Amino acid sequence: MKQWYESLFENYGLKYDNEIFTQGTIGECDFIESEIAYNKQFRILDIGCGTGRHSIELTKRGYQVTGIDLSDSQLNRAREKAAEQNLLVDFQKHDARQLPFNDEFDLAIMLCEGGFPLMETDEMNFQILQSAAKTMKSGGKLIFTTLNGLFPLFHSVKDFLESAKHEEGNASYQDNSFDLMTFRDHNTTVFEDDFGKKKQLQCNERYYVPSEITWLLKSLNFGTVDIFGANLGAFSRNDKLTTDNFEMLVIAVKK
Question: How confident is the model over 222-236, as a mean pLDDT?
């Protein structure tokens, strides 16, 4: 049986690129470049690359990028887009929990909930971080965004659930519930795929607080772990994480 995130990204390559949350690619890649000091020798792994927006933009800028995803639909669209621009990008289908790389990459990115934190259990989410760490060289950098658990807590779960019932781009979100014991937001997502077929999925995503993320990464042999507020298309180390940030930006360096 397919999980909700597998069904969500099936036949969703075209409409995905029009979603609001995919419009910050240029600014996000500007930040990524600054974080690796514009070193074109760096090998980059894009985990949960989707339709390849970061992989393609970074390849355009002269970097060697491998993009991995679980969705054939997303990968097909990524390959189409790369071919249209005469770019050679290494797109591969893999489960982020079981990546077939060891100590190969100088940078791993995992943006816009690219796998983590969509898994069904905390153990599975941890496996994604574990797998990402395994792919990286010593001194390599991991940059990812994830849902900020401080946001629903500070705004009260009641207010958070009210604000979560909304339409965004192609999708509408309803019947939200937030479990304080697991920090999971459960909701019904209704949307149309690329063929105009209406889908209704029971989704759930895990919110994390900064201390959890820090502990998980430290247990995986990351030395430095920095966490900031994640602003779409405008990542910055100057943005202190606050209770108003829906997402957090995590930057960790492997020992």
Answer: 97
